[in-house]
Q: What sequence folds into this?
């Protein structure tokens, strides 16, 4: 079975060592997803796998036939940006921009997780519904590193979208 | 990364047969294994993908729950039954890694994650766990994250996980399917090993074994806490962690279940500490005795000497909080 990426199907006829990240960039030509550390520490390679955020560097492409992947290219376009993309631009949520695709994919999934009621390690009641505080956003985005240090503006962009959705 | 054969298991029996071969390893979430394969710390000749086996779902099991081996860490921590009845487990899972990693990491795979000892992942260094017989560069080296209990002359690595520490406090059991088709259960407390002179073996799994799930006993109730002390506020391994399930009745500790992370080659459980606490009225003097007993045999390696007082203080803080005292 092929893998579906941003709605299009791709055959997985690759060396089994190929990470999903390398497949996206090299074989599918979708270079929006970035390779940072290649070890799951920086989050630059974050994509949505069947709607959930993962590090695409730490999974093999061949494991994902039949799965559906959304990358930054699938979230929005320059003419029709996703609300998070527009908010990152408005709030200057980047400097060099290398971590940005991962940040935005991660933030998209994070808002879905909050909507689904997932708690985090900073939530007061593990069995309760989480509220979207700045502390929660920072904890939930801790898998995405920004070495330019644009964190304040990243949080502001996410807060704006979350409040607009609420 | 070294080349390997990619195989997909189509049933438990199939998985067992494929995994019994020399050099074969199972892959589920892959977040730890692929990381180590890129470093060539792990060099399997065959990867057996177990992701399509029917090992998902959290289902009632007697008065407890059965967590399928392929249930992701995220799904486990988000499950309303886990959050309501086993909060120490949900808390421990949420204290580890990141949302991205927990979405991929599985219950079975998390139990099998390997140490984060920096000498284990550095091919230029001696490591008995990676290459038996080469020695241990951590002994006498930089050993801030290393063991203070249960270490050996061959290895002072720690088990890095959080989930298994809570499972140890809850006295959960691991369900294992062998290559011969037998099913056995091993208490989580006995699943991981101390290093002894065979530190290359992290746990009791044999070639061809497949973890099929984890069984949680009847909900423990009481006050359930997981406290993790680490170098960063988020996304860091424990220097010391404590999982606690404490019942206070009529001003006395009726039941205490405690397990510790970051201290040893396995989640540390010491029944003597629990017995010392049970039946006693909570007090700082009692908590000092409990910490002293826990750390009776503790031994620092130099840069991790701080873990001994840190463990004492963390345990006392958890016991104070769990018994209604102030921090």
A:
């Amino acid at each position: 079975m092929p893998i579906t990426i941003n709605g299009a199907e791709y055959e997985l006829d690759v060396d089994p060592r190929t990470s999903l990240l390398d497949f996206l960039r090299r074989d599918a030509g979708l270079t929006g997803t970035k390779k940072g550390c290649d070890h799951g520490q920086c989050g630059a390679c974050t994509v949505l796998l069947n709607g959930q955020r993962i590090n695409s560097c730490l999974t093999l492409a061949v494991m994902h036939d039949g799965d559906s992947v959304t990358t930054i290219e699938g979230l929005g376009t320059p003419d029709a940006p996703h609300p998070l993309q527009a908010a990152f631009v408005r709030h200057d949520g980047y400097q060099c921009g290398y971590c940005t695709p991962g940040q935005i994919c991660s933030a998209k999934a994070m808002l879905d997780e909050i909507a689904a009621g997932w708690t985090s390690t900073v939530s007061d009641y593990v069995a309760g519904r989480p509220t979207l505080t700045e502390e929660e956003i920072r904890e939930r985005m801790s898998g995405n590193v920004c070495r330019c240090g644009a964190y304040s503006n990243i949080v502001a962009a996410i807060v704006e979208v979350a409040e607009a959705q609420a | 990364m070294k080349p390997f054969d990619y195989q997909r298991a189509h049933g438990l029996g199939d998985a067992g047969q494929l995994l019994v071969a020399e050099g074969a390893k199972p892959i589920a979430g892959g977040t730890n294994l692929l990381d180590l394969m890129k470093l060539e710390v792990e060099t399997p000749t065959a990867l057996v993908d177990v992701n399509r086996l029917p090992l998902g779902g959290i289902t009632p099991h007697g008065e407890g729950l059965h967590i399928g081996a392929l249930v992701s860490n995220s799904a486990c921590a988000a499950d309303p039954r886990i959050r309501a009845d086993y909060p120490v487990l949900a808390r421990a899972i949420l204290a580890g890694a990141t949302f991205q990693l927990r979405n991929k990491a599985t219950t079975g795979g998390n139990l099998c994650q390997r140490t984060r000892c920096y000498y284990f992942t550095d091919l230029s260094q001696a490591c008995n766990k990676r290459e038996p017989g080469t020695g241990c560069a951590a002994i006498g080296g930089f050993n801030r994250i290393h063991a203070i209990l249960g270490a050996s002359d061959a290895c002072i690595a720690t088990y890095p996980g959080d989930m298994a520490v809570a499972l140890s406090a809850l006295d959960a059991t691991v369900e294992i399917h062998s290559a011969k088709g037998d099913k056995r259960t091993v208490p989580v407390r006995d699943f991981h090993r101390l290093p002894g002179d065979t530190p290359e073996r992290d746990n009791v799994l044999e070639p061809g074994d497949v973890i099929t799930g984890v069984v949680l006993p009847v909900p423990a109730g009481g006050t359930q806490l997981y406290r993790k002390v680490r170098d960063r506020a988020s996304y860091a391994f424990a220097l010391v962690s404590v999982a606690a399930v404490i019942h206070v009745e009529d001003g006395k500790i009726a039941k205490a279940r405690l397990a510790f992370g970051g201290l040893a080659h396995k989640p540390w459980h010491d029944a003597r500490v629990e017995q010392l606490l049970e039946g006693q009225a909570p007090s700082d003097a009692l908590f000092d005795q409990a910490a002293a007993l826990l750390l009776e045999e503790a031994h620092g390696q130099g840069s991790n000497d701080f873990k001994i007082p840190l463990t004492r203080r963390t345990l006392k803080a958890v016991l104070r909080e769990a018994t209604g005292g102030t921090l």
